Amino acid sequence: MRPWRDHLEADDPLVADGRVGAPDLVAAGTLLRRWADRWGDDPTARLWKEGGRWWTAGEFEATTRRAAGRWRTAGLEPGQRVVWSTGSSVAALAAHVGALRAGLVVVPANPAYSERELAHIVTDVRASAAVVGRPDQAQWVRDATPGPVVVCGPDLDLPDGDPGVLDAAGPDDPALICFTSGTTGAPKGAVLRHRNLLAGVESVTRAWRMSPDDLLVHSLPVFHAHGLVVGAYGTMTAGGSAVLLPAFDPDAVADTVRAEAATLFFGVPTMYHRLVAGGRAPDLARLRLCVSGSAPLPVELHTAVSAAVGSPVLERYGMTETLMNTSNPYDGARRAGTVGFPLPGVEVTLTQGGEVLVRGPNVFDGYFERDAANADAFSDLGDGGGQWFVTGDLGADEDGYLVLRGRSKELIISGGFNVYPTEVEDVLARCPGVAEVAVTGTPSDEWGEEVTAWVVPDGTPPTLDELRAHCAGALAPFKQPRLVRVVDALPRNALGKVVRSRLG
Ligand code: MLC
Ligand code: AMP
To answer: Which ligand is nearest to the CA of 221?
Structure first.
């Protein structure tokens, strides 16, 4: 594959220092120190725009400082976990950054999760606090917590107090625990340390030339790596600014691009599909860069977006556990159907079977309290360079560019959200009228894949609405089936295991 240096300008300090091997991406120590320096250097710089009002860097710094003081006054100690389950807002980001500044570990969670899904996360990390957007979620957190727990809204409605020493977390301290199922079905928390975040953000911001001149139209959810680390952390690290939209809407994105001197848009393929379908993709033409990731961008959609925008969309490949791994280049050919080549600091290799393995300072070192899963997650190829993370993605090197060719892990990606067939099957198996069930992803132009339930009925087959209604308390809407197929039997192998790949 092409070398990471091809992502950078010749005068980038990472290239200019002539270093052989990996670049030093973690010299700044932590993102918190980078941000504090930025905000101190130019407190009047615009940082976030929300609901027509700009927040300066200095205002945001003060708000995060107050948030840190509130966390401390509420009795929280460094290392304790705060579940953060909210939509996008400056207040929510301030609560999040304030927690990091106080040394807490933030556990992002999708606010669309059901009680079962949220309770699993709260219990698994033994949360000491939670930021939630709704009263029912607050109750779910209390019900799931045996001991005392601080529960508040995104405005952090807690008493003020002395923040004490801020930004004291070291590079090896955990910063985030992000839930994902990895290559197996069970949701577990990927522990991202401060050094992983710094390395992951430094490499993309440099590769994509992010600077204080940038203005990002931010409409991604903030509880996943794409919107949180690349979007929000990337903006703060580069010293740029972002218009924070509460949700994705093609017209709102296009109107914002027109109204502001916006330069960047980051999206998942479903967003680009909707921008094209709604005739709003040409409004993105004034941006200097459109990035797609989190799910495969079909070549036809790449071509359609690029034609409308007048420059090629840049596709990149990342994961919760590793942050960003590869990217098409800012300068140079952006090839449709490929995810480019390793970002600065990242090593990528392919096994004989085509499995993608990655290594680098961006890569996490394990799931929270999951020794068995951790043993399976990494592979030592005996090359002396340390363990490789086994991504569960399959790929090939085509002329120096990585092409992803499916997955060895059982995973459906719908609109950029991951859905694990076994989790959905376990819930559907208990639905009246279901004798047996298997779940697969059906290709979809809009969603990438649509969750599909293959049902062997027990009597009258349940309708799609009945299946979804049954899922309501247990699965977020994006995991619920959108299609149902009634079949006489499920295909099984010699051991009796259902072979999902033979459905469809
Ligand atoms: C919403 N719904 C979905 C869905 N998103 N269903 C399936 N798949 C999804 N992704 C549900 C809603 O709950 C609603 O259900 C119904 O679909 C219609 O909603 P909508 O209004 O049409 O959808 P919308 O809310 O606009 O959401 C679409 C979307 C959103 C594309 C904006 O899915 C989204 O923000 N995706 C981004 C995901 C993301 O950030 N991934 C990054 C992961 S990090 P009902 O039942 O209420 O009608 C990662 C690493 C990396 O992967 O490489 O980046
Ligand atoms: P997540 O666990 O949500 O971080 O999802 C990570 C997975 O998303 C990866 O393992 C890939 O399967 C997939 N993914 C991310 N970016 C891309 C991309 N550009 N093309 C194809 N798949 C992608």
So the answer is: 1
Radius of gyration of the chain (CA): 22
Tokens 């941000």 belong to which residue?
Answer: 35
Q: How far is the CA of 63 from the centre of ligand 1 (A)?
A: 30
Residues 6+ apart with CB under 8 A from 138: 130, 132, 151
CATH code for the domain defined by 31-46+56-169: 3.40.50.980
Give the domain ranges of the chain: 31-46+56-169, 412-502
pTM above 0.90, yes or no: yes
pLDDT at 21 over 70: no
CA 70–ligand 2 middle distance (angstroms): 36
d(CA 304, CA 277): 10
CATH of the domain spanning 412-502, picked from 3.30.70.420, 3.30.300.30, 3.40.190.10, 3.55.40.20: 3.30.300.30
What are 27-86's pLDDT values in tens digits?
889 999 999 999 999 999 999 999 999 999 999 999 999 999 999 999 999 999 999 999
- The residue contributing the CA closest to ligand 1 atom 49 is 294
Question: Which residue ranges have their beta carbon within 6 Å of ligand 2?
Answer: 180, 225, 293-296, 315, 317-320, 339, 391, 393, 404, 407, 413, 418
CB of 376 within 8 A of CB of 369? no
Decide which of 504 and 316 is more confident: 316
pLDDT per residue as tens digits for the range 238-253: 999 999 999 999 999 9
Angular region, 354: left φ>0, alpha ψ -120 to 50, beta rest: left
What digits encode the pLDDT tens for the residues 466-494?
A: 999 999 989 999 999 999 999 999 999 99
